[in-house]
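User: I'm putting together notes for a lab meeting next week and I want to include a structural view of one of the chains we've been expressing. I don't have a solved structure, so I'd like a prediction I can at least talk through. The sequence is below, exactly as it appears in our construct file.
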Amino acid sequence: MLIFISSLSTTDAKRKKKPVRKVQKTEERYIEIDNFDFLYNGGEAEYNSYDAMAVNNLMDEAFSHIGARYRSGSKGPYAFDCSGFTSYVYGQMNKQIGCSSRDQYAKNVPIKNSEMQRGDLVFFTSPSSGRGVGHVGIVVDVDPETKTFTFIHASSKEGVKVSNSTDGYYARRYIGARRVM
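Assistant: Thanks for the context. Below is the predicted structure for the 181-residue chain, given as structure tokens.
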């Protein structure tokens, strides 16, 4: 990761300072990262196991399927159910995470909500699962102040899309998160 800070002249110093932007070089282009988690963790976060390049590749794969239709039992690449979507996306990164949402919940590493990062799996109940796991998505972004997140998933009504944890349906049904990468 590279952080660029422009030098300020004396006249610029009187102006209001803009926040520093974190930029990461990927292949021959720069990608701006809007997630400022590094500001909130007091420098104590351990990013050793967090491979930013792999997560960016994972997110590129996931977002390439936005709008793909939902079909129960489908594992992609043109139609998905929720666990079919997550297992397909992770499978493209050579990660076997399990076939069903319950299996993915059981097989992967439990994490606290405060540890959640981009690329983690998030789990919800569904009307047919009772209190058990019935739906899964992949974390897109986390707001550490509000403890909310956005996630990409295969919605039964709208296909592959991005939703927010504050949406009433998902806020009531959230179960927990798991780490794969």
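A couple of points you could mention at the meeting. The radius of gyration is 18 Å. The chain has a mean pLDDT of 81.

User: Perfect, that's what I needed.
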